[in-house]
Amino acid sequence: MTYAELANPGILTQPVYEPGKPIDQVARELGLDPAGIIKLASNENPFGPSPAAVAAGERALREAQLYPDGGYYALRQKLAAKWSLGLDQFVIGDGSNELIELLGHAFLAPGVECVMHQSSFIVYKLVTLMFGSTPVEVPLVDMRQDLERLAAAVTPRTRLVFLASPANPVGATNTAEEIFALVRSLPPHVILVLDEAYAEFLDAAPDLRPLIAEGRKVICLRTFSKIYGLAALRVGYGYAAAELIAIVQRARQPFNVNGIAAAAAVAALDDHAFVDKCRRENAAGRAQLGDGFRKLGLEFVPGGGNFLLVKVGDGARVFGALQQRGLITRPVKPYGLPEWLRITVGTRAQNERLLATLAEVLRT
Ligand SMILES: *Cc1c(COP(=O)(O)O)cnc(C)c1O
Asked: Same domain, yes or no, for 243 and 355?
């Protein structure tokens, strides 16, 4: 018998997640100087991590011989205060990706369906298939997420509906009214997983707490990987009704998030000046990229996150040519979007170089 024959069937049906290439790998492969390479491929924060978070992480590292507080009390306490919710309404994950998997452990099995948009974050499909469940993909309408169509795909077998707003990689962003109407239209056997990885970049993110108070079935996922600049540390959180959180907690390993990351996350939540700066700079950079794309005659999705999806024609060619010139972007062919690239908003200077290089590449 082969190992593949011994494996759980769900494991073998998963699509492979293709991460943005690290700078060192591109430098090695193309013989470039890593110092001259800019990575705008993974929606990372171009302003680095919050300095307060780095200091707290360094302090925690000096106590690395101790197991972390497996209940993440300090972090949940800080979150409870921030959101005016109960401590028992928060679960901490090893990145919000882990929380998606924990929801799979808690709610998915063969015969169950998960509803999501086409071209949505690949992890939704990956986790659905891992547990032997069936992904049901709803087409986008002109690159927008039509939540009535999403609701219409729900069947008696549906357990989870995944929605990201802003969505990645597309960037489409739904209004609070649309999201509220969706949640209120779902039958009681369905949970909405609202992935808000980019919510902090919005001027006003939808506030789902009234829906939780109403008893609607919804969990909001947030991450420290994007605006807080802590992607390498892997911390995210979910908030929901205490009853739902208690079930997800059962799926979690006791020390799923390392203590350095947890300490950094606590400090990051207090670093309002850093977050405000990143939000402001991102909005300006996104406008800069949008203006540049317009001047180049390129169609793009006007998203609310820290990236833009832009239609460049032959995505693979333009990606390759940009990379040759030291700019790493993200081709989105695996998402069924071969004509598009996803480009992270960088610093003003990085955006300028991206636009100039893109103009040059499109002329060739
Ligand atoms: C980046 C991102 C996340 C965050 O993942 P982490 O595991 O917290 O780093 C989650 N969802 C979407 C849609 C994202 O783009």
From this structure: no
> For position 285, which CATH number holds?
3.90.1150.10
164 pocket-lining for ligand 1 (C-beta < 6 Å): yes
Is 95 near ligand 1, meaning CB less than 6 Å away? Answer: yes
pTM higher than 0.85 for the full model?
Answer: yes
Whether residues 218 and 157 fall in one domain: yes
State how far the Cα of 10 lies from the Cα of 130, in Å rounded to an integer.
4
Residues 31 and 58 in one domain: no
Boundary-marking domain end, from 268, 288, 319: 268
CB contact at 8 A, 146 and 170: no
CATH label of the domain that carries residue 147: 3.40.640.10
Q: Give the H or E element holding residue 361.
A: helix 348-363
Residues 240, 91 share a domain: yes
Separation of alpha carbons 144 and 141, rounded Å: 5
Q: Are 131 and 150 in contact (CB under 8 A)?
A: no
Question: What is the CA(14)–ligand 1 centre distance, in A?
Answer: 18
Asked if 71 and 80 count as a contact pair (C-beta separation under 8 A), the reply is: no
Go through 33-63 and write b for each residue having 16 or more CB atoms within 10 A of its CB, e for each that does not: eeeebbbbbbbbbbbebbebbbebbeebeee
Residue span of the structural domain in which 194 resides: 51-268
DSSP state of 313: S
Say yes or no: CB of residue 102 within 6 Å of ligand 1: no
* 121, HSE (Cβ side, Cα atoms, 13 Å): 24
pLDDT, tens only, 8-17: 888 888 877 7
Can you count the helices (H) and strands (E) in the chain?
Answer: 15, 13
- Same domain (yes/no): 236, 284: no
| Residue ending a domain, choose from 268, 302, 317 | 268
- Higher-confidence position of 3 and 9: 3
pLDDT band at 348 (very low <50, low <70, confident <90, very high): very high
- Evaluate the CA torsion angle 137, 143, 145, 146 in order and state its sign: negative
As a three-state string, the secondary structure of 168-200 is CCCCCCCCHHHHHHHHHHCCCCCEEEEECCCHH
Q: What spacing in Å lies between the alpha carbon of 356 and ligand 1's midpoint?
A: 29
| CA–CA separation, 293 and 287 (whole Å) | 10
